[in-house]
Amino acid sequence: MGKPTGFLDYQREDAKAESPKERIKHFNEFHVPLSKEEQQKQGARCMDCGVPFCQSGQILNGMASGCPLNNLVPEWNDLIYTGNWEQAYLRLKKTNPFPEFTGRVCPALCENACTCGLDGNPVCSKQNELSISEYGYENGLAKAAPPKFRTGKKVAVIGSGPAGLSAANSLNKRGHEVTVYERSDRFGGLLMYGIPNMKLEKHVVERKLKIMEEEGIHFAANTDVGKDIKAEQLKKEYDAVVLACGSSHPRDINVPGREAKGIYFAVDFLKATTKSLLDSDLKDRKYISAKGKNVIVIGGGDTGNDCVGTSIRHGCKSVIQLEMMPKLPDERAENNPWPEWPRICKTDYGQEEAIAVFGHDPRLYTTTVKEFKMNKKGEVCKAVLVSLESKKDEKTGRMAMVPVAGSEKEVPADLVLIAAGFLGSESYVTDAFGVKVNERTNVATNPDSFETNVKNVFTAGDMHRGQSLVVWAIREGRDAAREVDKKLMGYSNL
Protein backbone atom coordinates (compact mmCIF):
# COMPACT_ATOMS: atom_id res chain seq x y z
CA MET A 1 0.00 0.00 0.00
CA GLY A 2 1.80 3.08 -1.25
CA LYS A 3 -0.61 5.74 0.04
CA PRO A 4 -2.35 5.02 3.35
CA THR A 5 -4.78 7.92 2.92
CA GLY A 6 -5.53 7.31 -0.76
CA PHE A 7 -9.23 6.57 -0.29
CA LEU A 8 -9.55 9.84 1.65
CA ASP A 9 -7.44 11.98 -0.67
CA TYR A 10 -9.02 10.88 -3.96
CA GLN A 11 -12.64 10.37 -4.90
CA ARG A 12 -13.71 7.61 -7.23
CA GLU A 13 -13.61 8.76 -10.84
CA ASP A 14 -15.05 6.59 -13.58
CA ALA A 15 -14.27 6.74 -17.28
CA LYS A 16 -16.47 9.32 -18.97
CA ALA A 17 -19.18 8.09 -21.32
CA GLU A 18 -20.50 9.76 -24.44
CA SER A 19 -23.96 11.23 -23.91
CA PRO A 20 -26.78 8.80 -24.76
CA LYS A 21 -27.99 10.86 -27.71
CA GLU A 22 -24.49 10.91 -29.21
CA ARG A 23 -23.53 7.28 -28.70
CA ILE A 24 -26.73 5.89 -30.25
CA LYS A 25 -25.45 7.22 -33.58
CA HIS A 26 -22.86 4.43 -33.76
CA PHE A 27 -22.09 0.87 -32.60
CA ASN A 28 -18.65 1.58 -31.13
CA GLU A 29 -17.51 1.54 -27.50
CA PHE A 30 -18.44 4.86 -25.92
CA HIS A 31 -16.33 5.20 -22.77
CA VAL A 32 -13.34 7.54 -22.81
CA PRO A 33 -10.55 6.16 -20.60
CA LEU A 34 -8.86 8.24 -17.94
CA SER A 35 -5.30 9.40 -18.44
CA LYS A 36 -2.54 7.30 -16.88
CA GLU A 37 -2.05 9.98 -14.22
CA GLU A 38 -5.75 9.95 -13.33
CA GLN A 39 -5.77 6.16 -13.27
CA GLN A 40 -2.81 6.11 -10.88
CA LYS A 41 -4.86 8.14 -8.40
CA GLN A 42 -7.61 5.54 -8.63
CA GLY A 43 -5.03 2.86 -7.84
CA ALA A 44 -4.03 4.86 -4.77
CA ARG A 45 -7.56 4.43 -3.34
CA CYS A 46 -6.92 0.72 -2.73
CA MET A 47 -5.96 0.03 0.89
CA ASP A 48 -4.57 -3.52 0.48
CA CYS A 49 -7.01 -4.75 3.13
CA GLY A 50 -5.95 -7.40 5.61
CA VAL A 51 -8.71 -9.60 4.20
CA PRO A 52 -9.13 -8.51 0.55
CA PHE A 53 -12.68 -9.61 -0.22
CA CYS A 54 -12.24 -8.20 -3.74
CA GLN A 55 -10.19 -11.23 -4.80
CA SER A 56 -11.98 -13.86 -2.73
CA GLY A 57 -14.33 -15.34 -5.34
CA GLN A 58 -16.55 -16.87 -2.67
CA ILE A 59 -20.25 -17.72 -2.89
CA LEU A 60 -22.41 -15.86 -0.37
CA ASN A 61 -26.14 -16.44 -0.21
CA GLY A 62 -26.07 -18.12 -3.61
CA MET A 63 -24.19 -15.36 -5.44
CA ALA A 64 -20.53 -14.58 -6.11
CA SER A 65 -18.66 -12.10 -3.96
CA GLY A 66 -15.24 -11.06 -5.17
CA CYS A 67 -13.36 -12.12 -8.29
CA PRO A 68 -13.87 -15.75 -9.39
CA LEU A 69 -10.40 -15.64 -10.97
CA ASN A 70 -8.87 -14.59 -7.64
CA ASN A 71 -7.18 -11.67 -9.38
CA LEU A 72 -4.43 -10.10 -7.26
CA VAL A 73 -6.39 -6.86 -7.16
CA PRO A 74 -4.60 -5.03 -4.29
CA GLU A 75 -1.20 -5.85 -5.80
CA TRP A 76 -1.81 -4.37 -9.22
CA ASN A 77 -3.80 -1.44 -7.85
CA ASP A 78 -0.74 -0.47 -5.82
CA LEU A 79 1.61 -1.12 -8.74
CA ILE A 80 -0.22 1.30 -11.02
CA TYR A 81 -0.26 3.91 -8.24
CA THR A 82 3.53 3.68 -8.04
CA GLY A 83 3.78 3.80 -11.84
CA ASN A 84 5.03 0.23 -12.25
CA TRP A 85 2.67 -0.60 -15.11
CA GLU A 86 4.76 -3.43 -16.55
CA GLN A 87 4.82 -5.34 -13.28
CA ALA A 88 1.11 -4.63 -12.83
CA TYR A 89 0.49 -6.23 -16.23
CA LEU A 90 2.50 -9.33 -15.30
CA ARG A 91 0.65 -9.74 -11.99
CA LEU A 92 -2.71 -9.32 -13.72
CA LYS A 93 -1.87 -11.91 -16.37
CA LYS A 94 -0.83 -14.38 -13.68
CA THR A 95 -4.50 -15.05 -12.91
CA ASN A 96 -6.48 -13.63 -15.84
CA PRO A 97 -5.66 -14.62 -19.43
CA PHE A 98 -8.25 -12.22 -20.85
CA PRO A 99 -8.29 -8.88 -18.97
CA GLU A 100 -9.15 -7.11 -22.25
CA PHE A 101 -12.53 -8.89 -22.07
CA THR A 102 -13.31 -8.77 -18.35
CA GLY A 103 -12.14 -5.15 -18.15
CA ARG A 104 -14.99 -4.33 -20.52
CA VAL A 105 -17.88 -6.71 -19.84
CA CYS A 106 -17.47 -8.03 -16.29
CA PRO A 107 -20.02 -6.68 -13.77
CA ALA A 108 -17.08 -6.04 -11.41
CA LEU A 109 -17.67 -8.59 -8.69
CA CYS A 110 -14.42 -7.31 -7.16
CA GLU A 111 -15.82 -3.81 -6.71
CA ASN A 112 -19.00 -4.99 -5.05
CA ALA A 113 -16.88 -6.78 -2.44
CA CYS A 114 -14.48 -3.83 -1.98
CA THR A 115 -14.18 -2.64 1.62
CA CYS A 116 -14.38 0.98 0.46
CA GLY A 117 -17.85 0.17 -0.84
CA LEU A 118 -19.08 -0.74 2.64
CA ASP A 119 -19.58 2.95 3.39
CA GLY A 120 -18.71 4.90 0.28
CA ASN A 121 -17.51 4.33 -3.27
CA PRO A 122 -15.45 1.20 -4.04
CA VAL A 123 -12.12 1.29 -5.84
CA CYS A 124 -12.69 1.25 -9.61
CA SER A 125 -10.72 -1.97 -10.02
CA LYS A 126 -12.45 -2.99 -13.26
CA GLN A 127 -11.34 0.24 -14.90
CA ASN A 128 -7.84 -0.20 -13.48
CA GLU A 129 -7.75 -3.72 -14.92
CA LEU A 130 -8.67 -2.48 -18.39
CA SER A 131 -6.06 0.28 -18.20
CA ILE A 132 -3.37 -2.26 -17.31
CA SER A 133 -4.45 -4.53 -20.15
CA GLU A 134 -4.39 -1.75 -22.74
CA TYR A 135 -1.00 -0.60 -21.44
CA GLY A 136 0.24 -4.10 -22.23
CA TYR A 137 -0.90 -3.82 -25.84
CA GLU A 138 0.36 -0.28 -26.27
CA ASN A 139 3.82 -1.12 -24.95
CA GLY A 140 4.54 -4.49 -26.54
CA LEU A 141 3.89 -6.61 -23.45
CA ALA A 142 0.85 -8.35 -24.94
CA LYS A 143 2.63 -10.62 -27.38
CA ALA A 144 2.83 -14.27 -28.29
CA ALA A 145 4.78 -16.55 -25.95
CA PRO A 146 4.73 -20.05 -27.50
CA PRO A 147 5.54 -22.95 -25.17
CA LYS A 148 9.20 -23.97 -25.14
CA PHE A 149 8.40 -27.67 -25.52
CA ARG A 150 5.51 -29.85 -26.67
CA THR A 151 4.17 -32.82 -24.72
CA GLY A 152 3.03 -34.78 -27.76
CA LYS A 153 -0.54 -34.79 -26.46
CA LYS A 154 -3.44 -33.46 -28.55
CA VAL A 155 -6.60 -31.82 -27.17
CA ALA A 156 -9.74 -30.73 -29.03
CA VAL A 157 -11.76 -27.85 -27.60
CA ILE A 158 -15.32 -27.62 -28.89
CA GLY A 159 -16.50 -24.02 -28.78
CA SER A 160 -14.52 -20.78 -28.95
CA GLY A 161 -16.33 -18.74 -26.32
CA PRO A 162 -14.60 -17.55 -23.15
CA ALA A 163 -14.53 -21.01 -21.54
CA GLY A 164 -13.16 -22.70 -24.65
CA LEU A 165 -10.54 -20.01 -25.23
CA SER A 166 -9.50 -20.13 -21.58
CA ALA A 167 -9.08 -23.91 -21.66
CA ALA A 168 -7.19 -23.73 -24.96
CA ASN A 169 -4.91 -21.00 -23.64
CA SER A 170 -3.90 -22.95 -20.53
CA LEU A 171 -3.50 -26.30 -22.31
CA ASN A 172 -1.37 -24.74 -25.03
CA LYS A 173 0.90 -23.02 -22.52
CA ARG A 174 1.43 -26.44 -20.91
CA GLY A 175 2.69 -27.71 -24.26
CA HIS A 176 -0.28 -29.71 -25.50
CA GLU A 177 -1.31 -29.31 -29.14
CA VAL A 178 -4.75 -27.68 -29.09
CA THR A 179 -7.35 -27.31 -31.83
CA VAL A 180 -10.43 -25.16 -31.22
CA TYR A 181 -13.55 -26.02 -33.24
CA GLU A 182 -16.21 -23.36 -33.86
CA ARG A 183 -19.46 -23.82 -35.76
CA SER A 184 -19.75 -20.13 -36.66
CA ASP A 185 -17.80 -18.16 -39.26
CA ARG A 186 -15.91 -16.19 -36.60
CA PHE A 187 -14.28 -17.21 -33.35
CA GLY A 188 -15.17 -15.88 -29.93
CA GLY A 189 -18.61 -17.38 -29.30
CA LEU A 190 -20.47 -15.13 -26.87
CA LEU A 191 -17.65 -12.59 -27.06
CA MET A 192 -18.06 -12.22 -30.82
CA TYR A 193 -21.78 -12.56 -31.49
CA GLY A 194 -23.51 -12.50 -28.09
CA ILE A 195 -22.17 -9.20 -26.73
CA PRO A 196 -22.89 -6.08 -28.84
CA ASN A 197 -20.01 -4.17 -30.39
CA MET A 198 -20.66 -1.08 -28.24
CA LYS A 199 -19.79 -3.15 -25.14
CA LEU A 200 -16.91 -5.13 -26.66
CA GLU A 201 -15.50 -4.05 -30.00
CA LYS A 202 -14.71 -7.11 -32.07
CA HIS A 203 -11.22 -6.02 -33.03
CA VAL A 204 -10.40 -6.52 -29.34
CA VAL A 205 -11.41 -10.18 -29.63
CA GLU A 206 -9.60 -10.63 -32.95
CA ARG A 207 -6.47 -9.00 -31.52
CA LYS A 208 -6.28 -11.63 -28.78
CA LEU A 209 -7.12 -14.49 -31.14
CA LYS A 210 -4.20 -13.50 -33.35
CA ILE A 211 -1.81 -13.80 -30.40
CA MET A 212 -3.26 -17.21 -29.51
CA GLU A 213 -2.72 -18.40 -33.09
CA GLU A 214 0.87 -17.16 -32.97
CA GLU A 215 1.32 -19.20 -29.79
CA GLY A 216 0.43 -22.35 -31.71
CA ILE A 217 -3.28 -22.87 -31.11
CA HIS A 218 -5.15 -24.17 -34.18
CA PHE A 219 -8.60 -22.79 -35.02
CA ALA A 220 -11.21 -24.46 -37.24
CA ALA A 221 -14.23 -22.31 -38.16
CA ASN A 222 -17.52 -23.35 -39.80
CA THR A 223 -17.14 -26.79 -38.22
CA ASP A 224 -20.17 -28.01 -36.31
CA VAL A 225 -19.09 -30.94 -34.18
CA GLY A 226 -21.72 -33.66 -34.20
CA LYS A 227 -22.75 -32.64 -37.71
CA ASP A 228 -19.76 -31.64 -39.87
CA ILE A 229 -17.34 -33.82 -37.94
CA LYS A 230 -18.18 -36.91 -35.93
CA ALA A 231 -17.61 -37.13 -32.20
CA GLU A 232 -16.09 -40.60 -32.56
CA GLN A 233 -13.50 -39.24 -34.97
CA LEU A 234 -12.43 -36.59 -32.46
CA LYS A 235 -12.20 -39.09 -29.63
CA LYS A 236 -9.89 -41.23 -31.76
CA GLU A 237 -7.70 -38.37 -33.04
CA TYR A 238 -7.27 -36.52 -29.73
CA ASP A 239 -6.07 -37.56 -26.31
CA ALA A 240 -8.79 -35.44 -24.68
CA VAL A 241 -11.82 -33.38 -25.68
CA VAL A 242 -13.18 -30.32 -23.84
CA LEU A 243 -16.82 -29.46 -24.51
CA ALA A 244 -17.34 -25.70 -24.11
CA CYS A 245 -20.36 -25.03 -26.31
CA GLY A 246 -22.09 -22.60 -23.96
CA SER A 247 -25.68 -22.42 -22.85
CA SER A 248 -27.18 -21.71 -26.24
CA HIS A 249 -30.71 -23.11 -26.09
CA PRO A 250 -32.96 -20.04 -25.56
CA ARG A 251 -35.97 -20.23 -23.27
CA ASP A 252 -39.20 -19.70 -25.20
CA ILE A 253 -42.56 -18.35 -24.06
CA ASN A 254 -45.82 -20.23 -24.49
CA VAL A 255 -48.63 -17.76 -25.13
CA PRO A 256 -51.33 -17.51 -27.81
CA GLY A 257 -50.03 -15.87 -30.99
CA ARG A 258 -46.41 -16.93 -30.42
CA GLU A 259 -46.31 -18.19 -34.02
CA ALA A 260 -46.75 -14.68 -35.43
CA LYS A 261 -44.10 -13.29 -37.73
CA GLY A 262 -41.86 -10.68 -36.13
CA ILE A 263 -41.16 -12.58 -32.90
CA TYR A 264 -37.51 -13.57 -32.46
CA PHE A 265 -35.10 -14.80 -29.85
CA ALA A 266 -32.82 -12.02 -28.62
CA VAL A 267 -29.68 -14.01 -29.44
CA ASP A 268 -30.69 -14.20 -33.12
CA PHE A 269 -31.43 -10.48 -33.22
CA LEU A 270 -28.11 -9.51 -31.63
CA LYS A 271 -26.03 -11.94 -33.67
CA ALA A 272 -27.54 -10.82 -36.96
CA THR A 273 -26.80 -7.17 -36.17
CA THR A 274 -23.19 -7.84 -35.21
CA LYS A 275 -22.54 -10.09 -38.21
CA SER A 276 -23.98 -7.51 -40.62
CA LEU A 277 -21.99 -4.78 -38.88
CA LEU A 278 -18.75 -6.72 -39.31
CA ASP A 279 -19.49 -7.95 -42.83
CA SER A 280 -20.74 -4.73 -44.37
CA ASP A 281 -21.22 -1.98 -41.77
CA LEU A 282 -24.94 -2.91 -41.92
CA LYS A 283 -25.10 -2.13 -45.64
CA ASP A 284 -26.11 -5.68 -46.63
CA ARG A 285 -29.38 -5.35 -44.64
CA LYS A 286 -29.00 -8.96 -43.54
CA TYR A 287 -30.22 -8.33 -40.03
CA ILE A 288 -33.49 -8.07 -38.14
CA SER A 289 -34.26 -4.37 -38.34
CA ALA A 290 -36.07 -2.48 -35.59
CA LYS A 291 -36.19 0.74 -37.60
CA GLY A 292 -39.54 2.51 -37.27
CA LYS A 293 -40.99 -0.35 -35.21
CA ASN A 294 -42.66 -0.62 -31.84
CA VAL A 295 -40.36 -3.04 -30.04
CA ILE A 296 -41.16 -5.21 -27.03
CA VAL A 297 -38.27 -6.88 -25.22
CA ILE A 298 -39.26 -9.75 -22.93
CA GLY A 299 -36.67 -10.10 -20.17
CA GLY A 300 -35.06 -7.67 -17.75
CA GLY A 301 -31.47 -8.93 -17.76
CA ASP A 302 -28.31 -7.90 -19.59
CA THR A 303 -29.43 -9.44 -22.87
CA GLY A 304 -32.72 -7.57 -22.69
CA ASN A 305 -30.84 -4.33 -22.09
CA ASP A 306 -28.61 -5.07 -25.10
CA CYS A 307 -31.75 -5.50 -27.20
CA VAL A 308 -33.02 -2.12 -26.02
CA GLY A 309 -29.74 -0.39 -26.91
CA THR A 310 -29.49 -2.13 -30.28
CA SER A 311 -33.11 -1.35 -31.19
CA ILE A 312 -32.56 2.32 -30.45
CA ARG A 313 -29.47 2.34 -32.68
CA HIS A 314 -31.59 0.83 -35.45
CA GLY A 315 -34.03 3.72 -35.04
CA CYS A 316 -37.03 2.06 -33.41
CA LYS A 317 -40.27 3.97 -32.93
CA SER A 318 -40.67 2.85 -29.31
CA VAL A 319 -39.31 0.21 -26.98
CA ILE A 320 -40.72 -1.51 -23.89
CA GLN A 321 -38.77 -3.93 -21.70
CA LEU A 322 -40.85 -6.36 -19.65
CA GLU A 323 -39.62 -7.64 -16.29
CA MET A 324 -41.69 -10.24 -14.43
CA MET A 325 -40.20 -9.48 -11.03
CA PRO A 326 -40.76 -6.36 -8.88
CA LYS A 327 -38.31 -3.47 -9.07
CA LEU A 328 -35.33 -3.98 -6.79
CA PRO A 329 -34.60 -1.43 -4.04
CA ASP A 330 -32.23 1.47 -4.71
CA GLU A 331 -30.09 0.51 -1.71
CA ARG A 332 -29.14 -2.76 -0.04
CA ALA A 333 -31.84 -4.37 2.07
CA GLU A 334 -31.02 -5.56 5.59
CA ASN A 335 -30.94 -9.18 4.38
CA ASN A 336 -28.41 -8.29 1.65
CA PRO A 337 -25.35 -7.05 3.59
CA TRP A 338 -21.90 -6.30 2.21
CA PRO A 339 -19.89 -8.13 0.83
CA GLU A 340 -22.76 -10.02 -0.81
CA TRP A 341 -23.58 -9.08 -4.39
CA PRO A 342 -25.86 -6.02 -4.05
CA ARG A 343 -29.40 -6.85 -5.15
CA ILE A 344 -30.29 -3.27 -6.07
CA CYS A 345 -31.86 -1.56 -9.05
CA LYS A 346 -29.38 -0.44 -11.70
CA THR A 347 -29.98 1.47 -14.89
CA ASP A 348 -27.79 0.15 -17.71
CA TYR A 349 -26.67 1.86 -20.92
CA GLY A 350 -29.64 0.76 -23.04
CA GLN A 351 -32.15 1.97 -20.48
CA GLU A 352 -30.27 5.27 -20.16
CA GLU A 353 -30.54 5.69 -23.92
CA ALA A 354 -34.26 4.91 -23.92
CA ILE A 355 -34.81 7.53 -21.22
CA ALA A 356 -32.86 10.10 -23.26
CA VAL A 357 -34.68 9.32 -26.52
CA PHE A 358 -38.23 8.61 -25.34
CA GLY A 359 -38.32 10.45 -22.02
CA HIS A 360 -39.10 7.47 -19.79
CA ASP A 361 -37.62 4.25 -18.46
CA PRO A 362 -38.48 1.40 -20.87
CA ARG A 363 -38.92 -1.14 -18.06
CA LEU A 364 -42.33 -2.34 -16.96
CA TYR A 365 -41.99 -4.36 -13.77
CA THR A 366 -44.25 -7.23 -12.67
CA THR A 367 -45.53 -7.41 -16.24
CA THR A 368 -45.59 -10.11 -18.90
CA VAL A 369 -47.27 -10.95 -22.20
CA LYS A 370 -50.61 -12.75 -22.12
CA GLU A 371 -51.24 -12.87 -25.87
CA PHE A 372 -49.94 -11.67 -29.23
CA LYS A 373 -52.30 -10.42 -31.92
CA MET A 374 -51.63 -10.62 -35.65
CA ASN A 375 -52.67 -8.71 -38.74
CA LYS A 376 -53.98 -10.38 -41.91
CA LYS A 377 -50.41 -11.13 -43.04
CA GLY A 378 -49.72 -13.13 -39.90
CA GLU A 379 -47.42 -10.44 -38.52
CA VAL A 380 -47.47 -9.45 -34.88
CA CYS A 381 -49.17 -6.07 -34.45
CA LYS A 382 -50.23 -5.94 -30.80
CA ALA A 383 -49.38 -7.52 -27.48
CA VAL A 384 -51.76 -8.00 -24.58
CA LEU A 385 -49.84 -7.30 -21.38
CA VAL A 386 -50.88 -8.37 -17.91
CA SER A 387 -49.68 -7.31 -14.47
CA LEU A 388 -48.33 -9.89 -12.03
CA GLU A 389 -48.38 -10.29 -8.28
CA SER A 390 -46.65 -12.64 -5.88
CA LYS A 391 -48.83 -15.34 -4.34
CA LYS A 392 -48.20 -18.61 -2.56
CA ASP A 393 -48.94 -21.75 -4.56
CA GLU A 394 -51.34 -23.81 -2.43
CA LYS A 395 -49.97 -27.10 -3.78
CA THR A 396 -46.23 -26.45 -3.46
CA GLY A 397 -46.20 -23.75 -0.81
CA ARG A 398 -43.82 -21.71 -2.95
CA MET A 399 -44.27 -18.09 -3.92
CA ALA A 400 -45.03 -17.52 -7.60
CA MET A 401 -45.83 -14.59 -9.86
CA VAL A 402 -49.44 -14.88 -11.05
CA PRO A 403 -51.59 -12.63 -13.29
CA VAL A 404 -53.72 -9.93 -11.71
CA ALA A 405 -57.32 -10.31 -12.87
CA GLY A 406 -58.54 -7.39 -14.98
CA SER A 407 -55.09 -5.83 -15.44
CA GLU A 408 -54.79 -6.58 -19.18
CA LYS A 409 -53.87 -3.83 -21.62
CA GLU A 410 -53.00 -3.74 -25.32
CA VAL A 411 -49.86 -2.11 -26.69
CA PRO A 412 -48.59 -1.88 -30.29
CA ALA A 413 -45.91 -4.43 -31.19
CA ASP A 414 -44.17 -4.76 -34.55
CA LEU A 415 -41.07 -6.57 -33.27
CA VAL A 416 -40.83 -8.81 -30.21
CA LEU A 417 -37.50 -9.99 -28.82
CA ILE A 418 -37.45 -12.85 -26.32
CA ALA A 419 -34.60 -12.44 -23.82
CA ALA A 420 -35.82 -14.89 -21.19
CA GLY A 421 -32.54 -16.69 -20.58
CA PHE A 422 -31.28 -20.08 -21.70
CA LEU A 423 -32.12 -23.70 -20.94
CA GLY A 424 -28.69 -25.24 -21.26
CA SER A 425 -26.69 -26.54 -24.18
CA GLU A 426 -28.10 -27.83 -27.43
CA SER A 427 -28.58 -31.57 -27.23
CA TYR A 428 -27.01 -32.69 -30.50
CA VAL A 429 -23.46 -32.20 -29.17
CA THR A 430 -24.06 -34.01 -25.89
CA ASP A 431 -25.91 -36.77 -27.74
CA ALA A 432 -23.05 -37.15 -30.22
CA PHE A 433 -20.51 -37.66 -27.44
CA GLY A 434 -22.85 -39.68 -25.25
CA VAL A 435 -22.32 -37.48 -22.20
CA LYS A 436 -24.96 -37.31 -19.50
CA VAL A 437 -26.80 -34.11 -18.61
CA ASN A 438 -28.53 -33.14 -15.38
CA GLU A 439 -32.10 -31.97 -14.82
CA ARG A 440 -31.11 -28.47 -15.98
CA THR A 441 -29.66 -29.97 -19.20
CA ASN A 442 -26.15 -28.93 -18.17
CA VAL A 443 -23.43 -31.51 -18.76
CA ALA A 444 -23.19 -33.65 -15.63
CA THR A 445 -19.92 -34.19 -13.75
CA ASN A 446 -18.96 -35.18 -10.25
CA PRO A 447 -18.71 -32.27 -7.76
CA ASP A 448 -15.55 -30.19 -8.25
CA SER A 449 -14.76 -32.12 -11.42
CA PHE A 450 -14.92 -31.36 -15.13
CA GLU A 451 -14.70 -34.89 -16.55
CA THR A 452 -17.92 -36.34 -17.94
CA ASN A 453 -19.12 -39.93 -17.83
CA VAL A 454 -17.23 -40.49 -21.11
CA LYS A 455 -13.52 -41.20 -20.67
CA ASN A 456 -11.24 -38.26 -21.55
CA VAL A 457 -14.19 -36.01 -22.43
CA PHE A 458 -14.37 -32.91 -20.23
CA THR A 459 -16.63 -29.87 -20.08
CA ALA A 460 -16.40 -26.23 -18.97
CA GLY A 461 -18.26 -22.94 -18.91
CA ASP A 462 -21.99 -22.36 -19.29
CA MET A 463 -22.37 -25.85 -20.77
CA HIS A 464 -21.25 -27.15 -17.37
CA ARG A 465 -22.46 -24.62 -14.77
CA GLY A 466 -25.38 -23.07 -16.67
CA GLN A 467 -25.89 -19.52 -17.92
CA SER A 468 -23.38 -17.31 -16.14
CA LEU A 469 -20.78 -14.57 -16.52
CA VAL A 470 -17.77 -14.31 -18.83
CA VAL A 471 -15.47 -14.27 -15.80
CA TRP A 472 -16.94 -17.55 -14.53
CA ALA A 473 -16.51 -19.11 -17.98
CA ILE A 474 -12.83 -18.10 -17.96
CA ARG A 475 -12.45 -19.63 -14.48
CA GLU A 476 -14.15 -22.84 -15.62
CA GLY A 477 -11.94 -23.14 -18.70
CA ARG A 478 -8.81 -22.58 -16.64
CA ASP A 479 -9.80 -25.15 -14.01
CA ALA A 480 -10.91 -27.72 -16.58
CA ALA A 481 -7.56 -27.37 -18.36
CA ARG A 482 -5.77 -28.19 -15.12
CA GLU A 483 -7.83 -31.37 -14.74
CA VAL A 484 -7.21 -32.38 -18.37
CA ASP A 485 -3.49 -31.78 -17.92
CA LYS A 486 -3.38 -33.91 -14.78
CA LYS A 487 -5.22 -36.71 -16.58
CA LEU A 488 -2.83 -36.64 -19.53
CA MET A 489 0.45 -36.13 -17.67
CA GLY A 490 -0.20 -37.63 -14.23
CA TYR A 491 0.32 -34.24 -12.59
CA SER A 492 -0.30 -30.59 -13.46
CA ASN A 493 1.72 -27.42 -13.02
CA LEU A 494 -1.04 -25.21 -14.40
TrEMBL record:
Keywords: Amino-acid biosynthesis, Glutamate biosynthesis, Oxidoreductase. The keyword Amino-acid biosynthesis applies. It comes from Candidatus Anaerostipes excrementavium. This is Glutamate synthase subunit beta. GO terms for molecular function: iron-sulfur cluster binding; oxidoreductase activity, acting on the CH-NH2 group of donors, NAD or NADP as acceptor. GO terms for biological process: glutamate biosynthetic process. InterPro entries: DPD_II, FAD/NAD-bd_sf, FAD/NAD-binding_dom, Glut_synth_ssu1, Glutamate_Synthase, Helical_ferredxn. Pathway: Amino-acid biosynthesis. The keyword Amino-acid biosynthesis applies. Residues 153-329, 401-477 form the FAD/NAD(P)-binding domain. Residues 23-134 form the Dihydroprymidine dehydrogenase domain.
